[in-house]
Amino acid sequence: YILRPSCYQCKSKFPHKSADITMGDLWGAENIVNELDDDKGLSLIVINTPKGKSAIDQLDNIVSKTIDMSEAFRHNPSAVNSADIPNKREKLLCELKQDNNPNFEKYISKYLPKPNIVKKAAKKLLSFIR
């Protein structure tokens, strides 16, 4: 609801990266490189240019495994797609702008899905992933 406007039309999504390397979290690591997953999170390094490869090649003490790009982003669609603009985003921003002392709990309960809906969706998503 409150991302920067540029996040909804991001020009830096894959494959249009201009950086030498891109770093982030490897979402779904347990399904991609289970042997490296320690439940503490794994990083994803994408080498975009020869200069980036040279920089990564100079690193010592790094445990790595090459994986396919489609596999790397399968569990992280936001790496390739801009965020969708929530239907009620403008309404929320207007309310926040007019509220001199916003109570964020009020806005959370008003604009975010009810917990039981989120739990049901999470269960379905987990069963689909498994």
Give structural notes.
The mean pLDDT is 84. The two termini are 30 Å apart. The longest helix has 15 residues, at 115-129. Strands 1-2 form a two-stranded antiparallel ribbon. It is mainly alpha-helical. The protein is built from six helices and two strands, in the order βαβααααα. The chain is 39% helix and 8% strand. The chain has helices at 29-32, 50-57, 69-74, 89-98, 104-111, 115-129; strands at residues 21-25, 43-47.
Compile the SSE list and pairings.
Elements: E1 21-25, H1 29-32, E2 43-47, H2 50-57, H3 69-74, H4 89-98, H5 104-111, H6 115-129
Antiparallel strand pairs: 1-2
List descriptors.
two-stranded antiparallel sheet, 6 helices, 2 strands, mainly alpha
Radius of gyration: 19 Å
Mean pLDDT: 84
Spans of at least 5 consecutive residues with low confidence: none
Number of strands: 2
Secondary-structure element pattern, one letter each = EHEHHHHH
Q: What is the helix content?
A: 25-40%
Largest sheet: 2 strands, antiparallel
Q: Tell me, briefly, the overall form.
A: extended
Strand order of the largest sheet: 1-2
Number of helices: 6
Q: Which structural class should the secondary elements be placed in?
A: mainly alpha
Give the percentage of residues in beta strands.
5-15%
Distance between the termini: 30 Å
